[in-house]
Write a structure and sequence with these properties.
By secondary structure, the protein is an alpha/beta fold. The protein has 4 helices and 5 strands. It comes from candidate division WOR-3 bacterium.
């Protein structure tokens, strides 16, 4: 799993990615984000090579949170070919996120 620290890194790892990218907007002071963290790690392992999972700390890279209108965290954005295809707000079961990744891969 990749930790994005700059907008330039985001552009390279997410917007220019050849495969779908799942972006977890989070903060370390957020309890639901901490609940979602192991799920994101599992998804990164499960989809290794097929989809990429990255994390963006909203306190470190505020401009990205603003650009994508992240109002609550955790917010998970699903990118394909540099565009947001789906969004999920709040901590949800792994199956919900996996289903969205699967639809990106099949679509």
């Amino acid at each position: 799993m990749i930790q994005i620290k700059t907008a330039e890194e985001f552009k390279k790892e997410v917007l220019q990615a050849e495969i779908p990218v799942v972006v977890d907007f989070w903060a370390d002071w957020c309890p639901p984000c901490k609940m979602l963290a192991p799920v994101m790690e599992e998804l990164a392992r499960d989809y290794d090579g097929k989809a990429k999972v990255v994390k963006v700390d909203v306190d470190q890279v505020r401009e990205l949170a603003g650009k994508y209108e992240v109002m609550s965290i955790p917010t998970v954005l699903f990118f394909k070919q540099g565009k947001v295809c789906d969004i999920n707000v709040g901590a949800v079961p792994k199956a919900v996120l996996a289903e969205k990744i699967d639809s990106l891969l099949s679509g």
